[in-house]
Amino acid sequence: MVEVIRNTSDGSRPAVEGKASLPRLSFEFFPPGTPAAEERFWDAVVGLSALNPEFVSVTYGAGGTTQERTFKAIDRLRRETALEPAAHLTCVGASRAEIDAIAEKYWEAGVRRIVALRGDAPQGSAGYEPHPQGYAYAADLVAGLKRVADFEISVAAYPEVHPEACSAAADLDNLKRKLDAGASQAITQFFFDPDDYLRFIDRARAAGITAPIIPGILPIVNFQRTREIAASCNAALPGWLVDLYADLEENNQVRHPVAVSLAVDLCRYLMARGVEDFHFYTLNRADLTAAVCRLLRNDVRSGQSQRERPRLLAGGLS
Ligand SMILES: Cc1cc2nc3c(=O)[nH]c(=O)nc-3n(C[C@H](O)[C@H](O)[C@H](O)COP(=O)(O)OP(=O)(O)OC[C@H]3O[C@@H](n4cnc5c(N)ncnc54)[C@H](O)[C@@H]3O)c2cc1C
Fold this sequence. Notes:
The protein is built from 10 helices and 10 strands. It is an alpha/beta fold. The chain has a single domain, classed as Alpha-Beta Barrel (TIM Barrel). The strands form 2 sheets. Strands 3-4-5-6-7-8-9-10 form an 8-stranded parallel barrel, surrounded by 6 helices. The chain is globular and about 50 Å long.
């Protein structure tokens, strides 16, 4: 028997004797824009729903470009599936009144979860500028959403520090502000060195942040694209990973099993240290994420995960 560290609603992490529990999962999709993409989206949703996720989220395009598509996907998920949908919403390109109206529309449609983000400037623009009548930062958005209705709100967190933050400490203060404004948990940007996440959790707990901080896991579908996104969001690509993909990009037969193996290793490392929640950036495909999650759940069912003792961190993990 191994001590298993469980999250509680207040973020504390009492040790519980007993069997390791299955990892809790959530899946992120982007809203489809064409009939073919729509088919892929629903294939991915169906393919992953058997894993019984805590929630599935749908992103919101830069500058609010996908507002209608995000709503349509979320609304259909709520009406036609048993899944719990979470709508991403950003501050970009809309006044507070417009954002409040979107939030009201979600609430009336029965949607209770929101992932509240600042968003980024649309491509080609000079940088992020708050809308003159808008919510300037995610913390303001969270407070505004809570005034509209009692949503369950997730916010973003950055193990390797948000690229525009003036310091790591200022970025943590910002995370704290978002949680104090009414968010109940954070989801991290993806990362490839699990110790970056664990060190971040240590810093967050030391700063008095007790809410769950769920690691965001990206199974690599396309390394070149991953590299571009990583550069824009300050996620480091370890040298060994760059070397590994140097001659893999064109090799479909090998790169997908490799991506599964890398994500499984990352999650196993975290699970061995007490992490039980994982948010997957699915890129609207079920295969890689489903394979990773099935292997992780099998670890627990077969007792494999109990062979490693969790590292007990002060104050809790995700
Ligand atoms: C899980 C997850 C999901 C995402 N989903 C989407 C999505 O659907 N659509 C999308 O467009 N983007 C999405 N993003 C990207 C996100 O919008 C960007 O990372 C964006 O640059 C920051 O958003 P934020 O909510 O973290 O912003 P904030 O928390 O507002 O922080 C943004 C920056 O401003 C700083 N800051 C905050 N408040 C202040 C202040 N008062 N004064 C000065 N500086 C301040 C912070 O330290 C940080 O550097 C997502 C990111 C994550 C991790």
